[in-house]
């Protein structure tokens, strides 16, 4: 066992490190390191412009979307090279936040289902950060139960072959600054729910699209509602066959799980640091046995995730597919972050309620974490859905009994009160 | 990055599992739990023949001369099988004490016989309820003679010799403590077998009445030596716990697939699925933390004390969590003597305190992280 790179990996790392050292926006490093939880805010700088500039710089030198084929704006790199890039990019990686959904999920879906001409048109600007994509999946009536979505796509009556979209999406990250999107719709409500779906991609500037930011419980606005009123999409922008939308969406969602080695944050290092300088009634918090007991539990969860990631990297390094262990990441990190935020508040006692970054302990980091952490346990799969996934895909337990599985979609009850 | 056991090491695990499934089914564990014997003598002899008792003992002393990664792999299988033998006492503790602090003569005298399974060694430390600290140790060593009582000594009823912590100096600090190697087969040692929560592993109290003892390591160095050996043993025991946790999880999963209620397998109910998913999470975290410990142990890394506490805290959590929820998944059947669930529940709670309580390891972990942070 060792933590060392192979000679080839070491050479690659050296090359990456040199390039990043020479090209990254070093003047933003301190700001990025102290950035809080939730949307990226940089002091006195337009975060979007900075992010786009860094992505463009990377793309021009061949360091964007490393694992994509060169023809589509990537580098054709191996999975482990992609991980090494991520490790070396470090805090600058936070600048890529606005591109994650497009590059991580929409791109691979386009790669699998778009025409060659479309791939050459759309993928390179997506890789270069020139066009931002979002994913129009969740709906008010379909979150965990995504296949219950109700947005309709109907053939235009003018014989053009176009599709007309009506309905509403919700929880769309970045819809307000996106140029393009992939969209899942219902094309046939008379068949069971998984069978009547169809996937498209479209221009977010299309007439009939209205975007309304959602004010979140923590006061920020990273998500949107998107309304469609007679929005027209050419049939050429359909991804996969009519009625195959569910299969296509699985490709998208599978790619969500490829973020190996990203190392989900639990907030433990920040809490440990706080405990080394704040006092309980028994003296320094880190020396208080009751505090130590809690810290130890969060410490071993944090290292457990870290070394689970290392096991996956070892598999990648050997050219193998990592095991299912990484599926625990968000399920462990999300609740832990919330527990840590609540405990950090307790340690600060009455002052723990102060959220003003100018006054609060650690620039209000823990208060921001406290208010943001409920979302971590819901977004991208709730804790409960993640437990179902582990139980079914890893442990081989039976799927849930689905009472609506064979029922035509338009006959599924829509209210719990008879 | 190569944070994984090698194919050869994994193959050793496969062989150990095959051997233990054949020679140590749960009926063998029950034979010790229910019967008059304190350990499975046939299995013990077989393990010696396989070389498993001397994995890290140098070839010059009759061992296999392999590394700690190999021993971790074997330890996991011993834990899966709930092997009712003095493996942890002899291999994780007695052998490690001799390797860490034994004189050449002591090593030559005991290591070959430990590797061959001809003698059983153990560590006698606790004297009364409550955490063991330098302040609480009372057993006295005067002119090479020990007087006092040690309690809940694993395999104290059958061990041929024990490493014993004793007070040699005045005061109540660690510098007044030393270690001794004591042949337990002398009249001045009285053994009393104890009823415990896990009778598949024997325990005894040992009363020393001016028992003849020889020093192990330098006088006054007892505490640092035993802390260091306990760290090493914690990593090895963590693998034993990881093996037990995995098997308890598998038992629960298998039962959830097979047991029907309300016309469907109970494993299709989310309440049961989620409990099993959480068991998988604990077991996975423990395994990954165990790998960190194994890496530190095999390389002698400076991080070993922190890695040991990490592996220990995580593995204790996982085994207790999986063993108790395995009973829960089994419902009423899980509380019968006939089902094997209680074997894992017993063992998980035995191992949870075998090297000192969880609170002590939690404390060590944070103290060590703090020391590293201060140093950095």
What does this structure look like?
The complex is a heterodimer of chains A (418) and B (376). In chain A, 40% of the residues lie in helices and 13% in strands. With 418 residues, chain A is of the alpha+beta class. Chain A has three domains: 7-127, Acyl-CoA dehydrogenase/oxidase, N-terminal domain (Butyryl-Coa Dehydrogenase, subunit A, domain 1, Orthogonal Bundle); 133-256, Butyryl-CoA Dehydrogenase, subunit A, domain 2; 268-381, Up-down Bundle (Butyryl-CoA Dehydrogenase, subunit A, domain 3). Chain B is globular and about 75 Å long. With 376 residues, chain B is an alpha+beta fold. In chain B, the strands form three sheets. Chain B has a four-stranded mixed beta sheet. The mean pLDDT of chain B is 97. Classes of the chains: A alpha+beta (418), B alpha+beta (376).
Structural class of chain B: alpha+beta
> If you consult CATH, what is the topology of the largest domain in chain B?
Butyryl-CoA Dehydrogenase, subunit A, domain 3
* Assembly category: heterodimer
- Helix share of residues of chain A? 25-40%
Give the N-terminus to C-terminus distance of chain A in angstroms: 60 Å
Compact summary:
The complex is a heterodimer of chains A (418) and B (376). With 418 residues, chain A is of the alpha+beta class.
Structural topology:
The complex is a heterodimer of chains A (418) and B (376).
Chain A: H1 7-23, H2 29-33, H3 47-60, H4 79-89, H5 100-113, H6 116-127, E1 133-136, E2 152-155, E3 163-173, E4 180-186, E5 197-203, E6 209-213, E7 223-233, E8 238-239, H7 245-256, H8 268-275, E9 279-280, E10 283-284, H9 289-317, H10 329-348, H11 365-376, H12 383-394
Parallel strand pairs in A: 1-4
Antiparallel strand pairs in A: 2-3, 3-7, 4-5, 5-8, 6-7, 9-10
Chain B: H1 7-23, H2 26-34, H3 41-50, H4 68-81, H5 87-101, H6 104-115, E1 121-124, E2 140-142, E3 145-154, E4 161-167, E5 177-183, E6 189-193, E7 203-212, E8 214-216, H7 222-258, E9 260-261, E10 264-265, H8 270-299, H9 304-330, H10 341-351, H11 358-375
Parallel strand pairs in B: 1-4
Antiparallel strand pairs in B: 2-3, 3-7, 4-5, 5-8, 6-7, 9-10
Helix pairs in contact in B: 1-4, 4-7, 5-6, 5-7, 7-8, 7-9, 7-10, 8-9, 9-10, 9-11
């Amino acid at each position: 066992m060792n933590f060392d790179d192979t000679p080839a990996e070491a050479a690659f790392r050296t090359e990456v490190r040199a390039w990043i050292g020479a090209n990254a926006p070093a003047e933003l490093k301190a700001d990025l390191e102290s950035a809080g939880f939730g949307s990226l805010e940089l002091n006195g700088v337009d975060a979007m412009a900075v992010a786009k500039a860094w992505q463009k710089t990377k793309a021009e030198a061949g360091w964007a979307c490393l694992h994509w084929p060169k023809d589509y704006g990537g580098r054709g790199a191996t999975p482990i090279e992609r991980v090494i890039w991520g490790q070396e990019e470090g805090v600058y990686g936070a600048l890529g936040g606005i591109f994650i959904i497009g590059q991580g999920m929409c791109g691979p879906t386009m790669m699998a289902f778009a025409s060659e001409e479309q791939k050459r048109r759309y993928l390179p600007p997506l890789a270069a950060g020139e066009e931002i994509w979002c994913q129009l999946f969740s709906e008010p009536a379909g979150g965990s139960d995504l296949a219950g979505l109700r947005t309709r796509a109907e053939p235009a009556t003018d014989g053009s072959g176009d599709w007309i979209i009506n309905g509403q999406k919700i929880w769309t990250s970045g819809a307000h600054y996106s140029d393009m999107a992939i969209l899942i719709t219902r094309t046939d409500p008379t068949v069971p729910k998984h069978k009547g779906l169809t996937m498209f991609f479209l221009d977010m500037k299309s007439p009939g699209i209205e975007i309304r930011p959602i004010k979140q419980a923590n006061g920020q606005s990273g998500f949107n509602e998107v309304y469609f009123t007679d929005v027209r999409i050419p049939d050429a922008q359909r991804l996969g066959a009519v009625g195959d939308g569910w299969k296509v969406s699985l490709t998208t969602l599978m790619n969500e799980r490829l973020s190996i080695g990203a190392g989900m944050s639990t907030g433990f290092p920040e809490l440990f640091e706080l405990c080394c300088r704040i006092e309980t009634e028994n003296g320094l918090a880190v020396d208080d046995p009751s505090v130590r007991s809690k810290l130890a539990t969060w410490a071993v969860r944090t290292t457990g995730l870290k070394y689970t990631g290392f096991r996956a990297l070892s598999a990648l390094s050997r050219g193998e597919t990592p095991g299912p262990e990484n599926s625990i990441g968000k399920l462990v990190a999300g609740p832990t972050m919330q527990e840590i935020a609540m405990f950090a508040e307790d340690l600060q006692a009455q002052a723990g309620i102060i959220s003003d970054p100018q006054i609060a302990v650690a620039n209000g980091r823990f208060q921001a974490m406290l208010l943001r952490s409920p979302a971590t346990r819901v977004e991208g799969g709730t804790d409960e859905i993640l437990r179902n996934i582990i139980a079914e895909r890893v442990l081989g337990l039976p799927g849930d009994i689905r009472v609506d599985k064979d029922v035509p979609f338009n006959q599924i009850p829509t209210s719990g009160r008879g | 990055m190569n944070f994984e056991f090698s194919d050869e090491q994994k193959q050793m695990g496969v062989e150990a599992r095959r051997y233990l499934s054949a020679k140590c089914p749960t009926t063998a564990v029950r034979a010790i739990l229910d019967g008059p014997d304190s350990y499975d003598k046939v299995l013990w002899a077989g393990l010696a023949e396989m070389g498993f008792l001397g994995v890290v003992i140098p070839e010059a002393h009759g061992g296999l001369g392999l590394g700690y990664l190999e021993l971790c792999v074997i330890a996991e299988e011993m834990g899966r099988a709930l092997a009712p033998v003095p493996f942890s006492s002899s291999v994780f503790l007695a052998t490690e004490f001799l390797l860490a602090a034994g004189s050449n003569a002591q090593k030559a005298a005991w290591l070959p016989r430990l590797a061959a399974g001809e003698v059983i060694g153990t560590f006698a430390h606790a004297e009364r309820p409550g955490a063991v600290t330098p302040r609480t140790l009372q057993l006295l060593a005067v002119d090479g003679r020990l007087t006092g009582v040690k309690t809940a000594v694993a395999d104290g009823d059958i061990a041929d010799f024990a490493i014993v912590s004793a007070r040699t100096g005045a005061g109540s600090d660690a510098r007044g403590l030393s270690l001794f190697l004591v042949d337990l087969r002398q009249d001045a040692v009285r053994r009393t077998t104890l009823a415990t929560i896990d009778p598949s592993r024997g325990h005894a109290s040992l009363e020393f009445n001016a028992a003849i003892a020889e020093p192990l390591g330098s006088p006054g160095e007892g505490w640092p030596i035993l802390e260091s050996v306990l760290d090493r043993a914690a990593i090895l025991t963590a693998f034993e716990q990881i093996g037990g946790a995995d098997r308890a999880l598998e038992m629960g999963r298998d039962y959830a697939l097979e047991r029907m209620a309300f016309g469907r397998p109970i494993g299709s109910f989310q309440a049961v699925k989620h409990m099993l998913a959480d068991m998988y999470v604990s077991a996975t975290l423990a395994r990954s933390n165990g790998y960190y410990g194994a890496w530190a142990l095999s390389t002698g890394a400076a991080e070993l004390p922190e890695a040991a506490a990490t592996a220990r805290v995580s593995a204790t959590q996982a085994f207790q969590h999986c063993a108790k929820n395995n009973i829960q998944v089994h419902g009423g059947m899980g509380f019968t003597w006939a089902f094997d669930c209680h074997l894992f529940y017993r063992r998980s709670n035995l191992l949870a305190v075998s090297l000192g309580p969880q609170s002590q390891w939690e404390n060590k972990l944070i103290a060590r992280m703090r020391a590293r942070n201060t140093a950095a």
